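In this supplementary section we document a worked example of the pipeline. Step one takes a protein sequence of length 354 as its only input; no multiple sequence alignment statistics are reported here. Step two produces a three-dimensional model, which step three serialises into structure tokens for compact storage. The input and output of this example are shown verbatim.
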Amino acid sequence: MLRPALLLLLLSQGVEIRDELPAMVKASPRVVLITNPAPMAQPRLSPKQNWSFSYLTTADFMPEGEEPSRRLNVFAQTDKAPSKDVARLTMRLWEMNRRILGIDHAEKYENRQVDIYLCDQGSAGGEQVFEHDGRNHEFNSIYIYDIQNFGSNVELAREVCHEYGHATLPPIGGYTSPEYWANGLMGEKLYMRWLRDQLDAGLLKPSDTCGADIVSLRQFVRDEVDPLILRAASAPQKEEALKPGSQTTMDNFLGLMLEAYSVLPNKVFGRTFALIGNGQPADYPKAIRDSVVEAGNGKFHVPDLLKKAPFWFPFGEKVRFEGNIKILEQDGIWTKVQVIGPGPYLINVGASGS
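The serialised model returned by step three reads:
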């Protein structure tokens, strides 16, 4: 990573900057951000509004032994836009998708590229659009409006997380409120929770989160994530509670998804997204159960939030636990459990419940 003084010098001289993101963990994919401080000779016209964008920051995935593969283009109308900050955050979210959820950008859109437009116009906020230019080119586009007056760092991070969820997560929809598609709020809640966890662990810095610090991310999780988890854990979330409809049923689905992220190992949680695919929210408990059964016996996690009272989770019809946790009730694939002491907590998915 370049030192700040050297970066400013190179930018002032109009030199293209190539900056490799520091690896979070050993398994982190190599990513290089490329910033050119000079305006493009041919500005980019946004497909949606035909607005002109003169500045470009890109991000390339660098698979070992292969050619670089472009994943992200961030277009800006001025050189004052936080293009590199937005690119860096987005590629951290891409890493979560890749390492934990096992997904990548859709290949049909510019060979796995996402385009982000940082707009000076419009009211502060954003939208995601699958669009085309009339010449058989399809784009996966995110528009962030009024970028110069967006407000707090954590609000910008939240907006990027929300729109990136629409761009990349399973298209689960059918709701009447607050949005038709759930994947924007899925991304907002899940990614912001993940960012908080990584900052808490020292694996990311505010430079990875558009400047959102650990205090603001903790507050967001307390206000916007934890209540949904507690709501979902308080009772079995069966078909009627999850089927598309009002904000209430969307909140039930979001809470169950966040509870699964809190309880399951990363790869097991990621598998739930593959098993639900483009399905219905009511299918998600079965996707969780199937991912647990696929994984077989092993450890799971109980966060402090769920240690304060008994909680429900779709572990499966036949389950037994080892450690300081006991089964209180079984209802189909749903198990009500209570933590009675410190971990580790182990699950046996093939035994009769006890």
